[in-house]
Amino acid sequence: MQVLPNGAKWIPGFLTREAQENLVETVREIVKSAPLFVPKMPKTGKEMSVRMTNCGSLGWVTDKENGYRYQTTHPVNGAPWPDIPNSILRIWTEISAYPHDPEACLINFYNQNAKMGLHQDRDEDDFEAPVVSISLGDSCLFRVGETTRTGRTTSFKLQSGDAVILTGKSRLAFHGVEKIYPDTSTLLKNGGRINLTLRRVTKPSNLTSI
Ligand code: SIN
Ligand code: MN
Fold it and tell me: What is the pLDDT of residue 206?
């Protein structure tokens, strides 16, 4: 494991090839009931270059009218998001060091031209929980910085099977995907990159009994 500035963690080769293949199958199953949708920027309605879907009790969505938010249903077909499969929950348990389950698993699909601008993950009520992300397929250039947009940044190449954990001070670090390196993985038969982002959204209740 590599510890980056502000305590972000990078685990190269976290998933074996077999585990990556199984995870791709799991994602394909999720996409059957929760198809990829086109996220749009708040206010301008400009289409983002990634395609998205979610599993979990809460899914992250964005559109022109209502902006960034979590909701319980798919924005196109109106169905509740599928549950987070146990194999994905196990990844969280293994590396989050956080005692409650994630509620959201955002699935981003990047074609070879897609990218994601520098942003903070701050639509959650609970910043105590880390953000855990898994890369599958083509490599990307990932950039992570400080908690201000103009802070110093570091970029590095994420490969299929790598995990990144934004925790502690880095929980609110700006980060983004600058580019995809085409044809750098054989995992996805048509190329591109999948990123899974696991997040706790609500603060866990302290009540153990009433
Ligand atoms: C994200 O920040 O939503 C995605 C990060 C990634 O694709 O690695
Ligand atoms: Mn993010």
Answer: 72
Q: Ligand 1: does its nearest atom lie under 6 Å from the Cβ of 195?
A: yes
The segments of the chain whose pLDDT lies below 50 read: none
64 within a domain of the structure (yes/no): yes
**Pocket lining: 142 vs ligand 1, CB cutoff 6 Å:** yes
CA of 60 to the centre of ligand 2 (A): 11
Report the pLDDT value the prediction gives residue 121, as an integer from 0 to 100. Answer: 98
Q: Torsion angle, CA of 170/171/174/176, rounded to 10 degrees?
A: 110
The pLDDT, as a whole number, for residue 205 is 84
- Ligand showing the shortest atom-to-Cα distance for residue 124: 2
Residue 66 sits at φ, ψ, to 5 deg, of -115, 0
Residue 186 lies in a domain: yes
Does a structural domain hold residue 137? yes
Q: Determine whether the shortest distance from the Cβ of 177 to ligand 1 is under 6 A.
A: yes
How far is Cα 26 from Cα 16, in angstroms, rounded to an integer?
15
Pocket test for ligand 1, best of 197, 198, 199 (most atoms within 8 A of CB): 197
Asked whether residue 132 is assigned to any structural domain, the reply reads yes
CA distances from 164 to 3, 9, 21, 91, 101 (A): 10, 6, 19, 12, 17
Which atom of ligand 1 lies nearest, measured to the CA of 119? 2
Q: Whose CA is nearest to atom 8 of ligand 1?
A: 195
Which DSSP category does 112 fall into? T
In the prediction, which pLDDT does 47 show?
98
Query: 101 lies in which domain range?
Result: 2-205
The amino acid at residue 62 is T
